[in-house]
UniProtKB/TrEMBL annotation:
It is an enzyme of class 2 (transferase). Pfam families: Methyltransf_19. This is SAM-dependent methyltransferase. One of its GO terms (biological process) is methylation. GO terms for molecular function: methyltransferase activity. Signal peptide: none annotated.
Length: 265
């Protein structure tokens, strides 16, 4: 499928929020519309990306896992999963999944010379499409633990509200014991009453991008199913093993995105 410049894309809007260059006018309009209602929203993208880097570094350094399935990889930016992982273990395998044509084009160009990193075009909300994909199966050994990443993805699922937990359960069923998942999601910190979360959600969903749901902490916790949560559990990303002590209070954006890491026993 080609690129439609009249439609905003999740990956390009996220890139615009992160200050990247791989976005179009329509994407910047979505970003700016959200920013007028929720000025802190750009910071949510940064929080999310920082969590990706911290959680992936933790998985690479501490679990011994050597295969990573990164669902919804996004456009290449400063620090991507394969760079974080392969700095720890140069032979670790990383398979990225995305379905955005711009992500696929940029990613393939970036990865041309990396034998241990692959990019696959599949629907991350259809677990069987990902898990039974021939290229995925050629690079990932399903008899050994896998690190599954669903970072900043499930809030863009626009189907029934209870479906994301079921989607994740179908992934978990197929993961070998000892596998890990890292996941993040937009948080409505006061259960439907947080003005910034409401305003940002309205703007995202009624924009040419069309998605961006804020869920409660309980709903986000349910996305981990029966897995064992790694300390400190499901929490605001700003509080998930930061690099140092907190000297400043959380800002509005930091209150609106949560996640965690869990292990399949
Ligand atoms: N995981 C990265 C991160 O946290 O920095 C990127 C997150 S970005 C907000 C979400 C990504 O998911 C985008 O690149 C988008 O193209 C991809 N995505 C959304 N829906 C998808 C689907 N149904 N199948 C595959 N990729 C999808």
């Amino acid at each position: 499928m080609g690129v439609d410049p009249t439609r905003a894309s999740i990956a390009r809007v996220y890139d615009a929020f992160l200050g990247g260059k791989d976005n179009y006018e329509i994407d910047r309009q979505v970003r700016d519309g959200v920013l007028t209602e929720a000025p802190y929203a750009a910071h949510m993208a940064v929080e999310n990306r920082d969590f990706l880097i911290r959680s992936v570094r933790f998985l690479a350094q501490q679990t011994g896992i050597t295969q990573y399935l990164d669902c919804g990889s996004g456009l290449p930016t400063a620090e991507n999963t394969h760079q974080v992982v392969q700095r720890v273990n140069p032979d670790a395998e990383v398979v990225y999944i995305d379905n955005d044509p711009v992500v696929l084009a940029h990613g393939r160009a970036l990865l041309e010379e990396n034998d241990h990193t692959t990019l696959v075009d599949a629907d991350i909300f259809a677990p069987e499409d990902v898990l039974d994909n021939d290229v995925v199966r050629a690079h990932i050994d399903f008899t050994e633990p896998i690190a599954l990443l669903h970072i900043g993805t499930l809030h863009h699922y626009e189907g029934p509200a209870d479906k994301p937990a079921e989607i994740m359960r179908r992934y978990y069923e197929r993961l070998p014991s000892g596998s890990f998942v890292a996941l993040s999601h937009f948080l409505d910190p006061e259960n439907e009453h947080t003005p910034m979360a409401r305003r940002a959600e309205e703007k995202f969903r009624h924009s040419p991008m069309g998605s961006g749901s804020f869920r409660t902490m309980e709903e986000i916790r349910s996305l981990f199913g029966d897995l064992e949560l790694v300390e400190p559990g499901v929490i605001r990303l700003a509080d998930w093993w930061q690099d140092g002590p907190r000297l400043t209070p959380l800002n509005e954006a930091q209150h609106c995105i949560a996640g965690g890491v869990a292990r399949k026993p």
